[in-house]
Amino acid sequence: MAEYERYEHDVLVIGAGGAGLRAAIAAAAEGTSVGLVCKSLLGKAHTVMAEGGVAASLGNVDERDNWQVHFSDTMRGGQYVNNWRMAELHAKEAPERVRELEAWGALFDRTGDGRILQRNFGGHK
Ligand SMILES: Cc1cc2nc3c(=O)[nH]c(=O)nc-3n(C[C@H](O)[C@H](O)[C@H](O)COP(=O)(O)OP(=O)(O)OC[C@H]3O[C@@H](n4cnc5c(N)ncnc54)[C@H](O)[C@@H]3O)c2cc1C
Question: 46 and 68, same structural domain?
Fold first, then answer.
């Protein structure tokens, strides 16, 4: 019979991309013991492929940028079948999460005066 190593945790996160890692950080910050499981190599999730940018209404290059525009783009892009409350929270909280990533050392392209650079992607007003 095969031998298995057994681990016990308060919280088990499945997936070690950006979503899973951020969930694990949040759970650990609450003082829980966290286990993280992924089926690919750790650090090789799709998240590390994303180098084009991240959508968040930072308002760094266009003063009309705000969470409502991001929310409306997200709902329209989802053909209005999105969970509107999740889209609202996403649009409202994205800037803070991006600044958090910046403070943790994530690299971003910069505007001339040193702020995180922004440009339009598909679906962005
Ligand atoms: C080439 C490429 C370029 C991209 N560029 C951009 C970009 O510029 N900007 C942008 O915003 N988005 C971009 N994206 C999309 C973006 O990468 C994803 O939307 C985002 O990374 C998803 O994050 P996630 O944590 O949900 O999933 P992922 O990063 O895909 O992580 C999923 C995790 O779950 C694990 N997993 C899956 N199934 C199982 C299972 N059954 N059991 C255990 N573990 C499992 C995987 O091993 C992995 O660790 C790009 C995607 C690709 C592929």
Answer: no
**In the predicted model, what is the mean pLDDT of the chain?**
94
pTM of the full structure? 0.88
Ligand 1 pocket member 19 (CB < 6 A): yes
- DSSP H/E element including 43: none
- 93 alpha carbon – ligand 1 mean position (Å): 20
Question: Do both 71 and 100 map to the same domain?
Answer: yes
Distance 19 CA to ligand 1 centre (A): 8
Residues 16 and 62 in one domain: no
- Does pLDDT of 121 surpass 90? no
